[in-house]
Amino acid sequence: MKKKTVLAQLPYYMVYITEAHAADTWPMKWSIEWNRPKDIAQRIEYAKICASDLLLTENIISFVVDDMNDEFNSKFGSWPTAYYVVSPQAEMLYIGEPGETEASYDIRLMFKFLSNWQRNGKTKSNDDTFRKD
User: Fold this and answer.
1) Which among 88, 85, 76 has a CA at the least distance from the CA of 113?
2) Residue 15: beta bridge partners?
3) What is the pLDDT along the chain (133 residues), one digit of tens a residue?
4) 3-class DSSP state for residue 121?
5) CA 23 → CA 27, 35, 37, 121, 122, distances in Å?
6) Are 73 and 79 in contact (CB under 8 A)?
7) Taking a C-beta distance cutoff of 8 angstroms, is the pair 25, 88 a contact?
8) Residues 66 and 22 in one domain
9) Distance between CA atoms of 96 and 85, rounded to whole angstroms?
10) Which residues form the domain of 93?
11) Is the Cβ–Cβ distance between 67 and 40 less than 8 Å?
12) Were both Cys, which of 36, 51, 111, 133 would link to 22 (CB 3.0–4.6 Å)?
């Protein structure tokens, strides 16, 4: 029987933050655009639709939703896209975000970090802690 890697056993969360291009504040004329949600219930509904559209089920990733004051986004600077690895001790181990001239982030870089982290015994080192690609 093949042993599960630590990567497969880690919990993954997606934080649904403020809409980057809400139709009523910064329209881009994309095929799917929503107005900025009026309340948390509407933001939760948007997150559910997003998860469904991306085929992300609870057994793959858990969705959580930023509050209406955008507290997570404000504290982490996650707009428009960012990826974080946080230790069980709540230490920031990794930040992955698009480069200045890029529109998206290559998620494989985060998984490479996680693989190295697993291989090196899940210890912090100056080479892989709080790393920003």
Assistant:
1) 85
2) 64
3) 455 565 667 778 888 888 767 777 776 766 677 888 999 999 999 888 888 888 877 777 888 899 999 998 888 887 767 888 888 788 888 888 887 887 778 878 888 888 888 777 665 543 444 444 4
4) coil
5) 4, 5, 10, 46, 43
6) yes
7) no
8) yes
9) 9
10) 81-133
11) yes
12) 36
Closest to 85 measured CA to CA, from 97, 70, 101, 74: 97
Measure the CA–CA gap between 66 and 43, rounded to whole angstroms. Answer: 8
Identify any residues that bridge with 85 across adjacent strands, giving them in sequence order. 94
Q: Is residue 18 part of a domain?
A: yes
Question: Total domain count for the chain?
Answer: 2
Residue with tokens 């912090």: 124
Residue 13's pLDDT is what? 83
| Length of the chain as a residue count | 133
Q: Is residue 2 part of a domain?
A: no
How far are the Cα atoms of 91, 101, 106, 113, 119 from residue 125, in angstroms, in the given order? 13, 29, 23, 12, 13
